[in-house]
Specification:
There is one protein chain. By secondary structure, the protein is an all-alpha fold. It has one domain. The protein is built from 4 helices and no strands. The radius of gyration is 14 Å and the shape is elongated. The termini are far apart.
Length: 87
C-alpha cells in the first residue's frame, strides 16, 4: 500500500474517531455543535499533518487527500449516532 493510500485510510479511521469524540463532548460535557464543528476542522488539519509526516507524503498533498471523505464521514457518523443516542 502506498503512503497516499495509508493517509486516506488513516483519515477514514480518524473521521470515525473524531465523530465519537464530538458525540462524547456533546453529550457528557454539553458543548454546543457550533463549538464542535471548528474542533473537527482543527483536528483534520492536525491529523493531516501528522499522517503526512509519518508516511513521508508532501504536506500540501496530505491536506488534500481525503478531505471530502473525512468531512462527509465525520458529519454523517456524528449525526446518525447522536440521533440514535438521544432518541
Amino acid at each position: 500500500m502506498k503512503g497516499v493510500e495509508k493517509v486516506w485510510w488513516g483519515k477514514v479511521i480518524a473521521s470515525i474517531a473524531v465523530a465519537l469524540l464530538t458525540i462524547a463532548l456533546q453529550l457528557y460535557i454539553d458543548l454546543p455543535a457550533s463549538t464542535l464543528l471548528p474542533l473537527g476542522v482543527v483536528l483534520y488539519i492536525l491529523i493531516s499533518d501528522l499522517l503526512s509526516m509519518l508516511l513521508a507524503v508532501d504536506r500540501r498533498r496530505g491536506i488534500k487527500i481525503g478531505v471530502f471523505t473525512y468531512f462527509i464521514l465525520w458529519i454523517t457518523t456524528w449525526i446518525l449516532l447522536y440521533t440514535y443516542l438521544t432518541a
